[in-house]
Amino acid sequence: MVVINFIIQNILTQSAIIIALIALLGLVLQKKSFGTVLTGTFKTLLGFEVLSAGFTVITASLTYFGKIFQHAFHLNGVVPSIEAINGQAMNTLGLGNEIAFTFLGIFIVNIIIARFSPWKYIFLTGQALLWMSTMTVVGGKICGFNTVVTVVLGSIIGGIFAVAMPALAQPFVRKITGNDAIALGHFCTVGYLFEAGAAWIFGERGENKHSVEDIKLPKALEFMQDTYLSVAVVMVPLYLITAAFAGPKWAGVGTTNYMVESFLQAVQFVVGVYVLLAGVRLLLGEIVPAFRGIAMKLVPDAKPALDCPVLFPYSPNAVILGFVTTTIGTVIGMFLMPVMSLAVILPGMLTNFFAGGTAGIFGNVVGGRRGAIIGGVLHGLFITLLPALLVVALQSLGFVNASATDSDTIVAALMYAFIFAPILKAI
To answer: pTM of the predicted model, to two decimals?
Structure first.
């Protein structure tokens, strides 16, 4: 038990270690030389750590922006946080063992389904699997299942999600990347598919379809075709305007002038994007060739399902557009939810950037610029509605004003609360 918990908590939840071990296994199965195995494994680990470093910089900048955004516009409500639910489930409800075993079970079920079904996807985003195991265990608690049923059912449902979500997203990923080498392993896929559907309905088609990446700029503005300058042109004014409304009390840090601080935080955001994209390029350059060994030996035709930033280099303008439009949608949703007698859900800037940015890529590839804009706003509404419904479902367990973010994990929890639990009561 101690060994299993150690492996789960220190290895299987560490995405960098998982991906490095996958690369190691893939290269060994291809009978590469010791030097090639060592280089490929280390570069894979390095690439993921560089990506994580960019993620950390972006997270810090967006945390600052989220704080000043709330105070600038005097917003009060529920801030969705899967981390908070995980902490309460493990520490207050004592569900740590169930979550750990469900996590391991999801990974095993994922491998089995990938080996013996047409869905050849290995989900490699360890943190996302932890959130899925948390939500399925909480769902089992809502239904009153015993430990064995909770773990087994959670493993099966989570394992199905781990292969089904990449499979459903793959037709779009194939269009985005231009090949079939990688898949998307991020449990916000229901939201991405929702935006893709909205973009198909409201977006551009045929000859009228124009990608966000193909915007023609006047000669004087051609400098904005540089990815990082275009990000800065959007983010710097956004931070400065928000800081101006928030004032020095909330936007200032230490002795630095609050407007200067907001400018530096916006620049830090751009730095984070730069580092993140560099990490993605390094990671993909190593993991795709290494994964070929697993595809040949263990799970024929297997594809690695990786975290959402792997798609960012393919459509960087759509990422920023997706972030902005999703944020607009979440702000609208914040005011709309009370009208529907639901909790006020505050916009979460991290989700809006990573999930909204990825959704923007989906909207753009399906419906062009119009699809990305309209789809992005609707996506923001959608990812506000789901957490509001989850607040209701979690109240029975004593979670007060608590909700989560990733749409797939929320859907899994809602299945327990609004499908499984009523069926059990009826029986």
So the answer is: 0.88
